[in-house]
Amino acid sequence: IPVPDIMKRFRITAAVAAIMMVLPSCNKVKYADRYGFLPGNDAEANSEAFQKCLDGGGRILVRKKGEYKLCRTIFLDSDTDLEFTEGAVLSRAVPGKARQADGTAARFVLLNRGALTREYNENISIRGLNLRCNGIDSGCGSELDIPTIVGLCCQLGFFYVRNLTVENFTTLDLPANDFALQICTFENVLVENVHIEGMKDAVHFGPGRNFVVRHGVFRTYDDPIALNAHDYTTSNPELGWIENGLIEDCVDLDDPENGTTGF
User: Fold this and answer.
1) Three-state DSSP class for 30?
2) What is the spatial distance between Cα 135 and Cα 100, in angstroms, rounded to a whole number?
3) pLDDT (mean) for 12-28
4) Contact at 8 Å (CB) between 80 and 161?
């Protein structure tokens, strides 16, 4: 993204600084294991426990290493600061009681709660998330346990959000029908230190303003970073303008098997 003058870059930096100043207000610490969110639990039990832990926001720590299976959408409220210890992995699983015709689960992994009603959530931070998609996608709005959101097709979704930080996020098996991280109708977003590989867009923006994406490593068949203010209706739930952004130190790796050359 060309940044034509130093003042525009300063405004971006100031917006990111504002995010970091707000996040420490999430000072109610909750340990996910104390709610029953544990490695080795079945997907239904872990999904219920993780949601209970995240309800109402606060500072949430996933502090035990291991694989955590999930089979439902986990909703995030305002003032949520979610952090994963190194070695903790969220692993998608298909529930036995809610499937599409092809057997895949139609739901997101994480979604801000206001996305359902087009009401803003604010001050959300996710750090250290390592995600295994296991071939399961969102169903692109298919209605199962949550209302349809046409145009939201992703593993991690944020629709109507202010002051969002995603740091140290890794997923290496992104399926062909989902974006890894989709952000639409937003203000003040920082995406930093991410490693995303797979078959669809890694970081996909709809309309919004004030964003920074930096220190990213990507290997995706489709766009590593997509700025889609106007696109197919299946790719964004709203249309508009994307304003005041900075992308730096991001690499798109070669993928000879799928015929992409990287940049």
Assistant:
1) strand
2) 13
3) 56
4) no
Residue 198: which residues within 8 A CB-CB, separation 6 or more? 133, 171, 172, 173, 174, 175, 176, 180, 219, 220, 221
Q: Is the pLDDT of residue 126 over 50?
A: yes
The residue among 259 and 41 whose pLDDT is bigger is 41
Q: What is the mean pLDDT of residues 59-84?
A: 96
CA 211, CA 202: separation in Å to the nearest integer? 15
Q: Given its phi and psi angles, is residue 199 left (phi above 0), alpha (psi -120 to 50 degrees) or beta?
A: alpha
Query: Token pair for residue 79?
Result: 């003032």
Tokens of residue 49, six digits: 């426990």
Average pLDDT in the chain: 86
pTM above 0.85, yes or no: yes
d(CA 190, CA 213): 6
Which token pair is 240?
């508009």
CA 252 to chain centre: 19
